[in-house]
TrEMBL record:
GO terms for cellular component: membrane. It comes from the Eukaryota. It comes from Penicillium argentinense. Keywords: Membrane, Transmembrane, Transmembrane helix. The keyword Membrane applies. Pfam families: RTA1. The chain crosses the membrane at residues 12-31, 38-61, 73-93, 114-140, 152-174, 194-213, 233-251. This is RTA1 domain protein.
Amino acid sequence: MAYKLYNYDPSGSAAIPIAALFGLATVVHIVQMVRARSWYMIPFTVGGVFEAIGYLCRYINSTETPDWQTTPYIGQSLLILLAPALFAASIYMTLGRLIVTLKAHSNSIIRPSWLTKIFVIGDVLSFLMQCGGGGFLASAKTQDKIDMGENMILGGLFVQILFFGLFIIVSVIFHCRMHASPMNYVGGSRIPWARCMMVLYTVSCLIMIRSIYRVVEYVQGSGGYLQSKETFIYVFDAALMLGCCLVLIILHPSKMLSEQENRYQKTEDLEMLASNY
């Protein structure tokens, strides 16, 4: 039995505006990244491109109903599935950058130099497992191979949740230690680190909810309830990931780190000059 691509007729009227919104959000992120030279946001912008192209592929499939072509199906399946792993990579690097900027290395249970490496390695492992499972699933011809592909994707999602859960624990411990530190580190206290942490928590929760949804979806299998209704992918995947994009447009990490840091440094320089006259 060949793998059935969709258990419903994909909606073009839903896919096009979502693809456009992801595309627009990604363009804004690219502009913000280039202006602020916040290169740690490169994975996030690539994830946005994945999302936009993924939903464009869903639109292409919607025009082919019921004779869906496998190429756009594989494109939408893999790109939408993998994008959040790229979002997560930038979130990991943002925390590492925040710790270094605050000079608060002792408040982190993992050294910043290792923090990014550990979590990005976990992210890459999750990415590869999901990518392999998605490709395997799309070309499956028997139920055994369908099950194998779904299990590979599940394994990748579990790895993602494991590392993301650990990241949230590391973040919370760092946050608590910062509050307990005398004067919250005078050297970096002018940077709104608490607001930055709230942004990271918000985006992390959105990605975690989406990942849990995906786990439940693949546990149920291709014949499960979640894969029988297109609404779920837009509510528990597209909307949540678009939310991540919007949050980080409004509160881009560069606005809270480098720009704030530069602004306060200029203020201090002016104060020093004034005191010399």
